[in-house]
């Protein structure tokens, strides 16, 4: 079974509101077995114009990543992000 990944690119526009989202989402990510696999503050932008922060979370499987994203609990957490950030999210399957 191949691993699954959640790639998040985020520019925070309301720190206080985003903190509430990050807390809720972080707890859920742990519950779904996700692990942060990059140091977001180390990114060096070489080309293009991505958001301010990139985070990549690894899940035991692509199905587990989709299960997290589609969960009712994460749907509630996403509401907390509304108006707090500009963000792009990608679910992607590992190559091996």
**Spatial extent as radius of gyration:** 13 Å
Give the oligomer, counting copies of the same chain as homo and different chains as hetero. Answer: single chain
Topology pattern, helix = H, strand = E = EHEEHHE
Uncertain residue segments: none
Whole-number tally of structural domains? 1
Q: How can the largest sheet be summarized?
A: 4 strands, antiparallel
What would you call the shape?
A: globular
Q: Write down the overall mean pLDDT.
A: 95
Amino-to-carboxy terminus distance = 8 Å
Strand content: 25-35%
CATH secondary-structure class: Alpha Beta
Tally the beta strands. 4
Largest beta sheet: strand ordering: 2-3-1-4
Assign the CATH topology: Alpha-Beta Plaits
Helix content: 25-40%
Q: What structural class results from the helix and strand content?
A: alpha+beta
State the helix count.
Answer: 3
CATH architecture: 2-Layer Sandwich
Q: What does it look like?
A:
Helices cover 38% and strands 28% of the residues. By secondary structure, it is an alpha+beta fold. The protein has a single domain (4-93), classed as Alpha-Beta Plaits (2-Layer Sandwich), CATH 3.30.70. The protein has a four-stranded antiparallel beta sheet with strand order 2-3-1-4. Helix 1 runs antiparallel to helix 3 (72-81). The radius of gyration is 13 Å and the shape is globular.
């Amino acid at each position: 079974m191949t691993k699954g990944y959640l790639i998040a690119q985020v520019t925070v526009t309301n720190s206080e509101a985003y903190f509430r989202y990050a807390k809720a989402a972080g707890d859920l990510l742990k519950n779904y077995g996700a692990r942060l696999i990059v140091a977001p503050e180390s990114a060096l932008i070489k080309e293009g114009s991505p958001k301010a922060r990139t985070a990549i979370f690894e899940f035991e499987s692509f199905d587990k990543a989709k299960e997290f994203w589609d969960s009712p609990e994460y749907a509630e957490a996403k509401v907390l992000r509304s108006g707090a950030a500009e963000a792009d999210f990608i679910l992607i399957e590992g190559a091996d």
